Amino acid sequence: MPDASAWRIALPHTTAAVPIARALVRTALAEVDAPADSDTAELLTAELVANAVEHTRPGAPIELVVELLESGCQVEVHDGDPRPPGDLTARPDDDHPDPWQEHGRGLLLIRTLSSSCGHRPTPHGKAVWFTLPGRRAPRV
After folding, report:
1. Cβ neighbours around 6 below 10 Å, total
2. 25, 27, 99, 128: which has the fewest C-beta neighbours closer than 10 Å?
3. Does the predicted model carry a pTM greater than 0.70?
C-alpha cells in the first residue's frame, strides 16, 4: 500500500451525519483492505461526529477526514468551534466511570480503544482525531 490514502467529506450538521460518517469509514477501510479494525473505527468515528453535532452551533460545517496509513488509520473530525473537546487524556477514574453520567463515555471509549488521540487548532476551529493500529496478522 502507498504511504497514505485519504478520504474527506463534508457532513450535514444533523444526527444524519453519524451514519454517513460510519459508512464512509467502513467503505474507506474496506476499499483498500486497510489494516485497521473497521468496527472500532466506525464506533469511535460515530462518537467524534456526534460530539461535533452536539457541541457546535447549528449549521456550522463539520468535515470528516479518514487517512489510511501503512501502520493503521487516522480519523479526524473538523468543526468550527475552537474550544478543545473534553479531556482526551487518561484520568485516574477511567477504570470506574459513573454509569449514571449522561456525557463523557464517548471520550472514554476513544481514549481506551485508540492507540492515540487528541485535538489541534485549525484555521476555522479545531480537529479532533484518533489513530488505530493495524491488525496483527494471525499466527499460523
Report:
1. 13
2. 99
3. yes
